[in-house]
């Protein structure tokens, strides 16, 4: 199927599909997407098949328009709105479902990674790990870029599972991981980079973090799950992980740390440098993503849509009830 999808061109449109990069087993580049081409059912079917097979799509040379972002997003499912009213709605009533992610200079988190001070840095994770349901996908485009950095990284859970050593794979295969809504980097217990240091937490998120950490139930997700096509996915978010279900012990913590360390050491990522005419969608139940950060004195703004959906394998610890805050997209 992979070769068929990557070589295929729609006879009724200008859609072209190619591998994201020759050395990667995931990701596709797609050009020719407009509101007109999306009206073709065969184009929409081709895009869905490509997404299912490759895990992420980079749409190149698209019009920088919120309406097109919504149209592309809805090819893959209904949109999920952000539950917090104060989160900026970039599209307003005209383009519902589009939120703005960004901050003014020195406003957000500031950390030191690899000896460099950056903001908007995010470690490897999957969205909604702290919720019982995972959104199906995220769609991003860059509105205000930066001179250096600000790249979004993507890594394939299928590749991560294959690359994991047989011994660790055997030990983690049937385990579940606990997650909480604790976004503080300094509280990360697993897989934190050597030499990492937090200079300034995200000011606007502190109340949410404190409430989530102390009042909300923990979510549980499998460390490895199997797709309908038989492929196994290593799906662990080092960020916000609390430990292994029924093994919150030194031995259980050591196992999760070993898996996270090896996962991050063997990861084969794609880091995307943003242009105004780019849009990216990624499969949230297969891929991990991260952001490498940028100069804290620069402003960076992204527009995001989120696709509803779930793989049906997550739940809350002790059959607890959820909370509106757990519907956030991070």
UniProtKB/TrEMBL annotation:
It comes from the Bacteria. Keywords: Dioxygenase, Iron, Metal-binding, Oxidoreductase. Its cofactor is Fe(2+). The keyword Ribonucleoprotein does not apply. InterPro entries: TauD-like_sf, TauD/TfdA-like, TfdA_dioxygenase. One of its GO terms (molecular function) is metal ion binding. PANTHER family: (3R)-3-[(CARBOXYMETHYL)AMINO]FATTY ACID OXYGENASE_DECARBOXYLASE, DIOXYGENASE RV0097-RELATED. Belongs to the TfdA dioxygenase family. This is Uncharacterized protein.
């Amino acid at each position: 199927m992979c070769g068929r999808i990557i070589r295929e061109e729609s006879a009724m449109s200008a859609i072209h599909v190619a591998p994201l990069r020759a050395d990667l087993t995931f990701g596709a580049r797609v050009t020719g997407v407009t509101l007109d081409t999306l009206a073709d059912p065969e184009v929409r079917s081709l895009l869905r098949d490509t997404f299912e097979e490759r895990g992420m799509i980079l749409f190149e040379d698209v019009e920088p328009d919120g309406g097109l972002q919504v149209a592309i997003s809805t090819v893959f499912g209904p949109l999920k709105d952000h539950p917090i009213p104060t989160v900026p709605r970039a599209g307003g009533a005209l383009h519902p479902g589009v939120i703005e992610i960004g901050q003014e200079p020195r406003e957000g988190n500031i950390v030191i990674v690899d000896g460099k001070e950056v903001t908007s840095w995010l470690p490897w994770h999957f969205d909604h790990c702290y919720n019982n349901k995972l959104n199906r996908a995220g769609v991003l485009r860059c509105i205000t870029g930066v001179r250096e950095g600000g790249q979004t990284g993507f890594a394939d859970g299928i590749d991560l599972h294959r690359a994991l050593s047989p011994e660790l794979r055997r030990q983690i295969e049937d385990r579940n991981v606990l997650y909480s809504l604790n976004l503080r980097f300094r509280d990360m217990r697993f897989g934190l980079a050597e030499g990492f240091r937090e200079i300034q937490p995200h000011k606007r998120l502190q109340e949410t973090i404190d409430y989530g950490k102390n009042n909300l139930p923990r979510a549980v997700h499998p460390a490895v799950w199997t797709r309908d096509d038989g492929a196994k996915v290593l799906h662990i978010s080092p960020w916000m992980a609390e430990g292994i279900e029924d093994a919150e012990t030194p031995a259980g913590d050591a196992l999760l740390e070993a898996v996270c360390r090896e996962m991050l050491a063997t990861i084969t990522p794609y880091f995307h440098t943003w242009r105004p005419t780019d849009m990216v969608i990624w499969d949230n139940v297969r891929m991990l993503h991260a952001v490498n950060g940028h100069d804290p004195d620069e402003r960076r703004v992204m527009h995001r849509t989120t696709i509803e959906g779930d793989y049906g394998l997550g739940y809350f610890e002790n059959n607890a009830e959820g909370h509106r805050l757990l519907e956030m997209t991070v």
